[in-house]
Design brief:
Blueprint: H1 4-14, E1 22-23, H2 24-30, H3 37-47, E2 58-59, H4 73-82, H5 95-98
Parallel strand pairs: 1-2
The chain binds a DNA duplex (13 and 13 nucleotides) through residues 2-3, 5-6, 23-25, 28, 33-46, 48, 55, 58-61, 65-68, 71-72, 76.
Length: 103
Amino acid sequence: MKSPFTAKVIEIIAAIPAGKVTTYGIIAAHANNKRGARQVAMILHSSSAKHDLPWHRVVNRNGQISLKRGHGYERQMKMLVAEGILFDEGQRIDFSKYLWWPR
DNA sequence: CAACTGACGATAG
DNA sequence: CCTATCGCCAGTT
């Protein structure tokens, strides 16, 4: 079996409601690995498809998409906008409106 | 098995 | 505002 951390991360991500977003750090913290944000990203990268996870609802702590242009950035933004999430001029998401906290 | 990589984050300057 | 550096450790090679 994969680590408890991995299982927890997948569980949390699968629970993110449409129209909301959360961050790598928050997920990591709830999976008992406060400083494991990078692993959350890695898990998403390798397991989002097989676990049918809403990977696009996870952004970094600035409310911005971490992907690079031409490597998923536009695709992710498009999916978020399609769910009603708006970006400001700096292409950042307003956490006061869209942040989802697992619990 | 060892080394390397990296959708991140906090901190320091 | 910015860059640099360290910590964390699952995947990949």
